[in-house]
Amino acid sequence: MQISATDTPTTEKTSSVLPKLSLIYAKHPAYGVDIFIAGKEGASDLDLLRSNGITAVVNCAVNLDFNFVRQPQLVSDHRNNVHGPGEIRYYKVGLIDGDGNPDTQMLAAYYILRAALEQILPEKPSYPRRERGGVLVNCRGGRSRSVAVVSLFLHLTLPEQFPTLEAAIDFVRDRRNLPEEEWYKAPKPVLTEAARRAAGWARAIGC
């Protein structure tokens, strides 16, 4: 299911225009929430996130950040660096879209996505965003890093439906509306191989 097809073109001229936000998997049976993918345009649209029940964002990009802090009464200004609880729970993985990631970083991305779904926040005023809803996984274009991480997650958490990483990747490509001529870079081969190694490590860890 595609949420919106009104995205703007990416800076990569050979890349297609993707939906602003894509529902990849509805009501994951282990967590009961929806999992989405977006690029920078969708991930930065707070109204769009809220209207789709998204309460957490997992940012896979090292070269992209967001400021979800919107409540002045909760914001502090320390040397012009505004900080405070954001409107959306925000988790940062920081993958490079290509070579250069530590060999275990894709495994870390898998566990961070799990944490976004499993973490229980305390009933304290300093933790105002306790809602549990959908999770958005994003990177700059929403076609490589995020596709690799979500595919790894589906493969490991739903092995009967996605017995291989390739099956999960094909499923995510379809839901993200990625054209076949872009599959060679969606996700990048080095990220696919990192996800394959991470799957083996996760199975060896057993949790």
Helix content: 25-40%
Number of strands: 8
* Structure annotation, total helices: 6
The CATH topology comes to Protein-Tyrosine Phosphatase, Chain A
What is the rounded distance between the termini? 30 Å
Name the poorly predicted regions: 4-14
**How many separate domains?**
1
CATH homology-level superfamily: Protein tyrosine phosphatase superfamily
Q: Helix/strand-derived class?
A: alpha/beta
Structure description:
With 207 residues, the chain is an alpha/beta fold. It has one domain: Protein tyrosine phosphatase superfamily (Protein-Tyrosine Phosphatase, Chain A), CATH 3.90.190. It has helices spanning 40-43, 46-51, 105-118, 145-157, 165-176, 189-205; strands spanning 2-4, 21-25, 35-38, 54-61, 76-78, 81-83, 89-95, 134-138. The longest helix has 17 residues, at 189-205. The protein is globular.
Task: Tag the structure with descriptive keywords.
207 residues, alpha/beta, Protein-Tyrosine Phosphatase, Chain A, 6-stranded mixed β-sheet, two-stranded antiparallel ribbon, 6 helices, 32% helix, 18% strand, globular
Summarize the structure.
The protein has about 210 residues and is an alpha/beta fold.
How are the secondary structure elements laid out?
Layout: E1 2-4, E2 21-25, E3 35-38, H1 40-43, H2 46-51, E4 54-61, E5 76-78, E6 81-83, E7 89-95, H3 105-118, E8 134-138, H4 145-157, H5 165-176, H6 189-205
Parallel strand pairs: 3-8, 4-7, 4-8
Antiparallel strand pairs: 1-2, 2-3, 5-6
